[in-house]
Each structure stands twice: as structure tokens, then as C-alpha cells.
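Bit of a strange request maybe. I'm writing a small parser for C-alpha cell strings and I need a real example to test against, not something I typed by hand. Could someone generate the C-alpha cells for this chain?
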Amino acid sequence: MNIRYLSRYLLFTTMSLAFMFGYLDIYVDKNFERLHIFLFNLTSGGFTILYLTEGRSVPSFKTLIFFFLSIIYAMLAFFEIYYPAAAIAVVLAFIVESYRIKKFPFFPYSFFRAKWSASEKFHQASLLCLSIALLLSSFVILNEVHFNLFHFEKLTLNVFFLGFSFPVSLITMSIIFGIIEEKKSSLIYIAEHIFFWLICGGVIVFFLFIIFQVFIGEVIISALLFITVLLIFFFFFRFGTRIQQKHFLVSGMYFLLISAVTGIIYIVLTKFAFYEYYGKVILRMHAFYSLYGWNLTGMMVIIRWNDFPIALNTGKAIYYHWFVILLLAPIAKFYPAAVIPAIISYVLFLAFFFFSKKKVKKIV
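Reply from user aminoacidic:
Good idea to test on real output. This should exercise your parser:
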């Protein structure tokens, strides 16, 4: 194997396995949801964030240590071997922090300074949220199995599915605003910083509302986040530099908008009697659109950033992605006959994107 392509092979493998684990509960009487999402958000997502942060074509030894330790953490959490999992989470958090303080100041005062670009702010916020999520997951594990200091119905390890997804969203936002910032203007300068605080502040408040089960707060904040994402979408569509990466990221933002809508619907459904069935359907759709639509797009663009433009028909690739994730993948959760076609279609999409060759001439 060419060492230059190591990061692609690693991500291709873990993303494929994560997707497969998402269906394994159909055939085995065990909940694989935790393993499925940890492998995708923490292992693949965390690796991508560190890979971008260190700025090397080949991942460093420390990044590979994070990658394999995160797999061990996911496996331990899945098999409920909690004390070693809690210890590894702390080690992973220190690895992430070592990257953050090397690239950014230890105290994130840059969040409050106008001279720092929104792209840099989102990047640092991604690293900070990843390390905080790891430390909190360790604390939650120890609280559940040993300390029992407090009990919140929503403050369990499973809630950190959200915690490990948010850093990936932030690093993708960093890429998006980096593309926008190639066109400087006072409007862009002011708007991008407002967007940063609406996204970061909104998600933090939303997370607190989830923990304390403040239904009205959840609805209001999720609606505010949807409006913010919609504004960022129009902003990026209008001002983003017209490069091949932009087309994929615009597609990813469509998935983000759809996942925001399904998230709001899911919250509202929790107050109705038919939630037990329809709520699960909506939640499955939300998970697929968020992970394998929005997050996946960001990770793929980051890993192949230096190869663009790539020899891939952009439009056909995007439509194929939509078909697999919007329709085939969610349907397969309820109709087992569609599982194998969904897995094959997804793996093929990853293979085409990760291993297509560079193309010299511009393609749109």
C-alpha cells in the first residue's frame, strides 16, 4: 500500500464498517448503534479533524495512535467494559488538546476577537468540542458505573452520539467559511462571525435543553439553528468560490437542512401517542442524513482536498449519493431485503470518491 493513501484506506475501511454495523441488529439480537456511530463520528471524524489540523499529506504517528485508540474505545464502550474506556477517553482528549494548543492559543480568546476569521474559529471550536466531549464521556461513564453523583435521563453515554457528531460539523463549517473568505467584503466579515456564535451558542444551549428535557426550549433552539443553517446555505451558495469542492459541500448542506427538519419533527413527535413507531422512523432518517449525508461529505472533501479537481462526474456522484442516503439506506432499516443493496451502493460510492484519480482540467 502506498503510504500516501493510508488516510484514505483507513477512513474507507472504518466508514464502511460503521455503515454495516448500523444494520447488524437486524440479524443479531444486540444493539450496535453505539459502535456504529462511535466508529463513524469519533474514529473517522476525529481522525479527519486531526489530519486537517496537522496539515500533512501523510497522517503522523500521533494521529494514527488516536485512530486506533478510538477504535479500542468504541469497542470497549460497546461491550460495556467501562473503566478502561473511561481511561482511553482521557488519553484521546489529551491527544486532541496537544494538536489544539500547538495550532491555537490554549485559552480560546480568539472566539471573542474580530481579527480571527470564522474559518479559524470553527476549526478551533471543532478541536475544543472534541476534547470536551471525550472528557465528558469519561466522566459520564464513571458517574454511571461508580460515583452515581447525579442522574439525568438524557445524560448517558448514548447522548454523546451528539457530542462526537458536532466537532465534525464544525470542521466542515471551517472549510465552508474558508472558501467564502476568499472573497473579502465587510458584509461577509460581519455575517460570518454572527453565524459562528449562532451555531456554537445554539448547539450548546440545545444540548443543555436536551439534558434537562426542556421541550419548548428544544423546539425553539432547533428552529433557530435551522434558520441559521439556511442563511449559511444561501450565503455559501452566493459567495463561495466556484470550485468542485463547493458543489459537494452545497450537497452536504442540503442534507444538513433535511436533517434539521427531521430533528424538529422528531422532537415534536415525542409529545404524541404514536411516537413509539413514527418517532423511530424519523430518528433513523435523521441519523442517516446527518451522518452519511452532511458529516460524510465534509470528511470526504477534507481528505481529498489537495487532489481536487478529481476525475469524477460531480453531478452524477451527488445524485447517486442522494439516492443511496435519502432513500435506499433508511428503507433498508425497515426492509431487510434492501440491506445488501444499500451496503454495496454505499461502499461503491465511497470507493469512487476516495480512489478516483486527480484530473488536470477543470470540471464542474
